[in-house]
Amino acid sequence: MLEKDIERILVDQDEIIEISKRLGKQITEDYQNKKPLIIGLLNGCLPFLAELIKHIDLYCEYELMSVQSYHGGTKSVGNVKITKDLDISVENRHVIIAEDIVDTGRTINVVKDLLLYRGAASVEVVTLLDKPAGRVEPFIPKYIGVTIPKLFVVGFGLDYEGFYRNTPYVGILKESVYNKD
């Protein structure tokens, strides 16, 4: 049913698993003896976080935080709002923020700065998708699954108006779905 709204699949389920394996191996190598805290940014990170942590062979914890900048539409509105904060301290911890997509750079910069302010020993970002053409603030994630062009994508955690998060792939949403003019 959801497939009818997808123009084409950009990253399929097998590619997502391979990306997660590669990123998990990289993180495992980089964080030996550091016991990282992986912070997933809700809601979009859940499928990626669940796949990624299966491939990290380290003692690590994960925690969830909810930060919003889109509020249901297709464009970031510019104000970043924390709607669910962390339940544990990040002080002296090596933190890895897990994101479904890094787009404008606004949200990830705010969260990274906040975690450093709270005393994190280090903060890096792992993202399934990187969309540098969408940047309005400079930001380069340390761990990038795949770089994509400036397209409106949904699936595997990414949504439009709360829907499409449950598809097992990342696809390009047909413009007719979100552009009703």
UniProtKB/TrEMBL annotation:
Domain called Phosphoribosyltransferase: residue spans: 12-160
Record localization: Cytoplasm
Catalytic activity, as annotated: GMP + diphosphate = guanine + 5-phospho-alpha-D-ribose 1-diphosphate; IMP + diphosphate = hypoxanthine + 5-phospho-alpha-D-ribose 1-diphosphate
Coiled coil: none
UniProt keyword list: Cytoplasm, Glycosyltransferase, Magnesium, Metal-binding, Nucleotide-binding, Purine salvage, Transferase
GO CC annotation, single: cytosol
GO MF, one example: guanine phosphoribosyltransferase activity
Entry protein name: Hypoxanthine phosphoribosyltransferase
Species assigned in the record: Hujiaoplasma nucleasis
